[in-house]
Specification:
This protein is of the alpha/beta class. The protein is built from seven helices and nine strands. The structure holds S-adenosylmethionine.
Length: 216
C-alpha cells in the first residue's frame, strides 16, 4: 500500500506540487493499521488503495487521499488539529500520530461512538471525538493550526476559516455534491489573508446537516 501511495504521489505531482510525501506522514501511515478501522468483511481489502464502506452509507477514504490531505497540513508535533468527519477514526489516528491534539467531529452518532471506543482502545489519548454537525467547527478549542474536512462541501464554511490560526492551513473537498469536487487547500497568512488553491478532482460523500441559506 505504501509503495502504491508513493507512486501515486509522483503521478499526481504536476497537480498537487508534491513529488513525495513527508517521511513523518509515511511513518504514520505505516504505523496505523487500516484493518483495525474497517468492518470485519472489509478487513481483507484494508490494504487496497481505495475507499471502503464503514456502514451508515459512509466510507473510509482511499489511503493516497488520506496521505495527501495529511501532508498538505504540514503538521508539527505542537499543533492542534480540527477534523470534521471522524468516520472510522482512521484519518484521526494518522493525525494523532503527528499532532499534539486532535479534535474530531462526526455527525452520525453510531460512527462517533465506535470511533471514540476504537481510538481509546488504541491508546490515542490526544484525541477528542464529538457527535454533532461540524459545520460550525469547535469554537471552544479554536484557533487550530490545521483543519481537515473529510466530506464534500458546496463552499468553505465561514466558521472554519475564522477558527483557523493565522499561518494555519485547511484542506477540504469543495464542489458539487455527488459530482466532482476539488480538494482545496486554504492558507491563512500571518496577516489573516486567505489564499485558496485547488489540488485535485475528488469524489467525497457529502457534508450533511449543515446550515444553508435558501434565497427567497
Ligand atoms: N476520515 C474518515 C475515516 O478515516 O474513516 C472518513 C470520513 S467519511 C469520507 C466522511 C464522514 O463525514 C462521514 O463519517 C460522515 O458521517 C461525516 N460527516 C458528514 N457530514 C458531517 C457534518 N456536517 N459534520 C460532521 N461529520 C460529518
Amino acid at each position: 500500500m505504501i509503495k502504491t501511495i508513493k507512486e501515486m504521489a509522483q503521478k499526481t505531482a504536476k497537480d498537487t506540487g508534491i513529488e513525495a510525501f513527508k517521511e513523518n506522514v509515511i511513518e504514520a501511515l505505516t504505523k496505523v493499521h487500516r484493518y483495525k478501522f474497517v468492518p470485519d468483511e472489509q478487513k481483507i481489502n484494508a490494504y487496497h488503495n481505495r475507499p471502503l464502506p464503514i456502514g451508515y452509507g459512509q466510507t473510509v477514504s482511499q489511503p493516497y487521499i488520506v496521505a495527501l490531505m495529511t501532508d498538505v497540513l504540514e503538521i508539527d508535533s505542537r499543533d492542534v488539529i480540527l477534523e470534521i468527519g471522524t468516520g472510522s477514526g482512521y484519518q484521526t489516528a494518522i493525525l494523532a500520530e503527528l499532532a499534539n491534539k486532535v479534535y474530531s467531529i462526526e455527525i452520525i452518532e453510531e460512527l462517533a461512538k465506535q470511533a471514540k471506543k476504537r481510538l481509546k482502545g488504541l491508546s490515542y489519548n490526544n484525541v477528542k471525538v464529538k457527535n454533532r454537525d461540524g459545520y460550525n467547527g469547535w469554537e471552544e478549542h479554536a484557533p487550530f493550526d490545521g483543519i481537515i474536512v473529510t466530506a464534500a462541501a458546496t463552499h468553505i464554511p465561514p466558521s472554519l476559516i475564522e477558527q483557523l490560526k493565522p499561518g494555519g492551513r485547511m484542506i477540504i473537498p469543495v464542489g458539487e455534491i455527488y459530482l466532482v469536487q476539488y480538494l482545496t487547500l486554504v492558507e491563512k497568512s500571518k496577516q489573516s489573508e486567505i489564499n485558496t488553491r485547488q489540488l485535485l478532482p475528488v469524489a467525497f460523500v457529502p457534508l450533511t446537516g449543515c446550515a444553508f441559506v435558501v434565497a427567497n
